[in-house]
């Protein structure tokens, strides 16, 4: 099977400082990769480089496009934008960064559909209604603006807005960050259901090991810009090899 | 005013504006930045249109200026006077006789012909501004033809009002490429934008943008399959000339709240009334 994403020797420096260094991994269709580490570990830099929000200094990010594997770092800006509104999706930590706050919930969900050429209002609205239901937002909220929603609802709306076009790869940056614990649990359940149901491939960056335990098939642990441990999630969390990973895992156990 | 150069602007400024106009004509619907000059009138008075007109005028031109279709409003009268004094050009109210027509909010009813120039005064040139306030981002969206947002605006309209309620400045796509704001003309006028024999120039003074539709450009009003574009107008004939094919203004005629619908294009309406009287005679 061709990997959906092949990352090769990805390096990003900020002047003399290392953002992330020599990161390589393959992601297969239907797989969820978790990237964990403390703040400053390079996990957000890595996600930014993978998703095309930052330009790395070295390396390749090869995506299996409809016309075969392509290095997305060498794509033109229009090609990359097209990718980011069709095959790719990006869920921001802060829903305000991923939503249009001045546009109704239905318009937010419908935007990607319209961006790829859907021109039938009735069908766009029908799909938006369906997706609101899938993320547990009542259909009668479809014309409300996200500013009238709670933080948890905003995050669920952002997820619906991203998944509506059936992307093949979803990037998530701390998708449960900034939410109350009870709200987090509900969102995680919802995400797990969607990932399984849609067979989604995803890369999730988080500092929260509970998130990766629940969602990720595989795990990479980052420290000072380097991947220091990688493997199946349960393996890494139950039997961490690296001292730093052991520390991370034990600190979670203490909570 | 004799101290001024022909049509007020100095030759260097006019050349700069003409260069922007050439670029705008070469890329229909694309907003070309230009260094807008201070004009001896406030921005709301159409300084963008005035500068474009000044750059186009020749001493042989016949100028017509309309505001909401009328030649006799304060705005139209002062701009017309301005060019009479600074350029000494002949002025006219007859659409067919004019070589350059500066307009705010209307396209004349009388079909324009080859060789005529229609100059629009534009307050906000950016059709995406309503939903995306960042200039850098809207420019990128134009460059990448990333126009999903434009339909989001129409979607919101239908969600809120049950139909596309946008009735002025209705967005269009030019030659299948750039999405353009036609300035606040009623959507009734949108069909006249496309395939027009005249050269159409758009000037936004405060926002420093020029754009253009060369003659016979393809212009399509955005819509949905199940909510198609309709060039609507008040469902009445004109109370003065009986026209059923012209855009109408509702005017209050007495203190009792009496109303009637009349052509907004005064030249068109007067012309039809005169033809009537002549027929009768
Ligand atoms: Zn009339």
Description:
The complex is a heterodimer of chains A (255) and B (281). With 255 residues, chain A is α/β, with parallel strands linked by helices. In chain A, 40% of the residues lie in helices and 26% in strands. Chain A is built from ten helices and ten strands. In chain A, a hairpin with a 2-residue loop joins strand 1 and strand 2. Chain B contains seven helices and twelve strands. Chain B is globular and about 60 Å long. The termini of chain B are far apart. The model of chain B has no long low-confidence stretch (mean pLDDT 94). Chains A and B meet through helix 2, helix 4 and helix 5 of A and helix 5 of B. The site of zinc ion has 9 residues of chain B, from strand 12 and helix 7.
Describe how the helices and strands are arranged:
The complex is a heterodimer of chains A (255) and B (281).
Chain A: E1 5-14, E2 17-27, E3 32-36, H1 43-50, E4 58-65, E5 68-71, H2 77-84, E6 88-91, H3 95-98, H4 105-115, H5 121-134, H6 151-163, E7 169-173, H7 181-198, E8 201-206, H8 209-215, E9 218-223, E10 226-232, H9 233-238, H10 243-254
Parallel strand pairs in A: 3-8, 3-9, 6-7, 7-8
Antiparallel strand pairs in A: 1-2, 1-4, 4-5, 9-10
Chain B: H1 11-26, E1 32-33, H2 47-56, E2 62-67, H3 74-87, E3 90-91, E4 100-104, E5 117-121, H4 135-143, H5 148-161, E6 172-174, E7 178-180, H6 190-193, E8 199-204, E9 209-213, E10 219-221, E11 248-252, E12 259-263, H7 266-280
Parallel strand pairs in B: 2-3, 2-4, 4-5, 5-8
Antiparallel strand pairs in B: 1-9, 6-7, 6-10, 8-9, 11-12
The complex binds zinc ion.
> Order of SSEs of chain A, N→C?
EEEHEEHEHHHHEHEHEEHH
Q: Name the average pLDDT of chain A.
A: 93
State the helical fraction of chain A. Answer: 25-40%
Uncertain runs of chain A are: none
- Structural class, judged by helices and strands of chain B? alpha/beta
Q: What composes the largest sheet of chain A?
A: 6 strands, mixed
| Helix share, percent of chain B | 25-40%
Major interchain interface with per-chain residue totals: A-B, 24 and 19 residues
What are the low-pLDDT stretches of chain B, counting only 5+ consecutive residues below 50?
none
Number of strands of chain B: 12
β-strand percent of chain B reads 15-25%
Termini separation of chain A (Å)?
Answer: 40 Å
Our count of helices of chain A gives: 10
As a whole number of angstroms, the C-alpha radius of gyration of chain A is 18 Å
Please count the beta strands of chain A (DSSP E, at least 2 residues each): 10
Strand arrangement, major sheet of chain A: 6-7-8-3-9-10
